[in-house]
User: What shape does this take?
Amino acid sequence: MLKFSVADTTIHRIIEQETTFLPAREMFPDLTPEMLATERGALQTANALDAQDTLILCFQSYVVKTPHHTILIDSCIGNDKPRARPVWNMKTDDTYMRALAAAGISVDDIDVVMCTHLHTDHVGWNTRLDNGRWVPTFPKARYVFAQAEYDYWLAQNAKTEVPAFADSVLPVVEAQRADIVSDAFAIGDHVRLLPTPGHTPGHIAVAVGKGQDDAVFAGDLIHTPLQLAYPELSPRFDVDPAQAAVTRRAFLDRYCDTPTLCCTAHFPSPSVGRITRRGNGFACEAV
Assistant: This one.
């Protein structure tokens, strides 16, 4: 499912990669062999875990079309950028742009780019290389960054250059296309921010819908269905793992057994579902 509608909003998934990522117990330091054994069958059935216990993640953007705006949420990995992960390093493929075109969307159609946080795989297509310079990929868009998130990475980058911030965030600011916003920021009557700190200090989720949350975009609040079974599990690259665990359970409690669609950044396809309760944890009923 690459396109779906909820109320008066249409949502497209724009997939750049769907592939193995890290061994489950390497990504989650607190995951015991017994915990993994309990969930292994369900994860494999969901195509979220391979036979070697390596997690399978999707790397994607969402394009949200409200009655008034076309909004891109998280801009994925990008091309031509120096990255530590080999399959992301100096990438030159056209997968992402072909996926946009297949959805009938051009870079000129995007009114707003929203980043749930400023990690490498959520900002990459913010910019593209043009004659040796990084320029905004979406020339007509305003780019929305949460103030707390921007301030954190600005300070980190001042100590030691953070490549993703330097090549995919600062050039947007320098081009005067950025809006650095408070948690109260909204776009019309359809799009609101939901502070969800932990993975990064200023991480946000994005809620969409007129008068109610028809859909919510979770970003890296949750990476894999394994964390539905065990909401206390935080990956090793969370800035504040304890805060992330508290935030994650509060988010899942908030949307559990409601009509709200949870649109995850990294769950394997179809990536979208409704949260239900399962024992002390949760499940996601795919749409």
The chain has a mean pLDDT of 97. The CA atoms of residues 273 and 286 lie 4 Å apart. The first strand starts at residue 3 and ends at 6.
